[in-house]
Amino acid sequence: MPIDITMPALSPTMEEGKLAKWHVKEGDSVSSGDVIAEIETDKATMEVEAVDEGKIGKILVAEGSEGVKVNAVIAVLLQDGEDASAIGSRPAEAPKPEAKSEAPAEEPAKGDAGTLQYDKGTSTTSTEPAKPATSPLRGEVGASAPGEGAATKSETGRVFASPLARRLAKDAGIDVSTVAGSGPKGRVVKADIEAAKAGKGATKSAPASAQATAAAPATGMSKNQVMALYEEGTYEVVPNDGMRKVVAARLTESKQTVPHFYLTLDCKIDALMAAREQINAGAPKSKDGKPAYKLSVNDFIMKAWAIALQRVPTANATWAGDSILYHKRSDVAVAVSVPGGLFTPVVKSADTKTLREISEEVKDLATRARNKKLAPHEYQGGSTSVSNLGMFGIKHFAAVINPPHGTILAVGAGEERVYPENGQIKIGQFMTATLSCDHRAVDGALGAEVLGVFKGLIENPVMMLA
């Protein structure tokens, strides 16, 4: 019996990806462990390996196709003795997001023991049965729209719309369930959305759930609404890639659903700078004079913040709906700027690592992040983040929490400042730190307490060893 090869989930929150490259073609024989394709997400490019042997009977998704849904069938594997006639009738390839077709997108295959399924945390696949479409690890991607072309349920019945119509409606901020369809069986098609955008389309009463959604925070102006404000030819349109889309979605979600509050204080860093200079000066050097390591101020910040969360463990928390998770480890994510967006790789158990270990790990993670070579388990998880813009001369800023983290520490540049002490005017080096807290998990007094512990460690770095 032919085996469906499906789009793997490279992370628990992945909903779609790009089939960047095929390493096989129709008719090729493959064995377990052979690399058959490369899948690209907003975060990384991963190789997909075969778990069964056989012959590639049909490739359904063309190389370079974007927006391929998790669990959508991308190819069919024939077993010994089978030929192409066993495949049955299937489309030549899945529609691309740019396609103008009004045909329904193919439904994702149901999981079975022969379905290729990504084993998270590695770059291979396993024969573990695929998760149901409504699995929370899929972000419920299959609960409403296999390929976005299937019907979605509402309180008033089933709403049918083509993939293109759904995409146009989303871009225009239109609730597709309120548009009267003119296609077969009332299906909403491209023309209906264009008419609705022009204010000429027929509409139907929205169900209570849709009305509640309409009352929720808006996602902003649509592309067409923005472009209409500017003279044509005075700008360049650059489509958002997967990373930028995910960054935008997560930060919008964070600001709309997470009740932020902010705590700011100044840390005197004279002792830290002296300790850093002394440690770096003692680093062994190679024959060409290159030191074995060079600690940064951020390494001290990561270490101090990780220890602070251990000393105030109730601040090492994340909100989980009807519960709060209090984490036993200080897994601290560090914001890394990359072209087109950012990564937040996680330094696990940072409180137990030396400054040198933290320094080497952060440099390694940052380098691989910029090359999109991180594995999912390296940028997922953690309970908190550190964002440092001091190297850009930024004195003070408030960072947006990265869900589901409970906090994020924003650190500005160190600078000389004049300050009073015992009636005398002195000069010292200071940096400003701002803690953003999720008020559902970390209250004001608790946030102030953990930030105070952090300040004490930064101002007396020798206490990190106590």
Automatic annotation (TrEMBL):
Comp. bias regions, Basic and acidic residues: 93-110
Domain Lipoyl-binding residues, every copy: 2-78
GO molecular function: dihydrolipoyllysine-residue acetyltransferase activity
InterPro entries assigned: 2-oxoA_DH_lipoyl-BS (IPR003016), 2-oxoacid_DH_actylTfrase (IPR001078), Biotin_lipoyl (IPR000089), CAT-like_dom_sf (IPR023213), E2/Pdx1 (IPR045257), E3-bd_dom_sf (IPR036625), LAT1 (IPR006257), PSBD (IPR004167)
All copies of domain Peripheral subunit-binding (PSBD), residue ranges: 160-197
Broad class of enzyme this protein falls into: transferase
Cofactor: binding comment: Binds 1 lipoyl cofactor covalently.
Alphabetical list of PANTHER family matching this protein: DIHYDROLIPOAMIDE ACETYL/SUCCINYL-TRANSFERASE-RELATED, DIHYDROLIPOYLLYSINE-RESIDUE ACETYLTRANSFERASE COMPONENT OF PYRUVATE DEHYDROGENASE COMPLEX, MITOCHONDRIAL-RELATED
UniProt similarity note: Belongs to the 2-oxoacid dehydrogenase family.
Protein's UniProt name: Acetyltransferase component of pyruvate dehydrogenase complex
Record organism: Devosia rhizoryzae
Source organism phylogeny: Bacteria, Pseudomonadati, Pseudomonadota, Alphaproteobacteria, Hyphomicrobiales
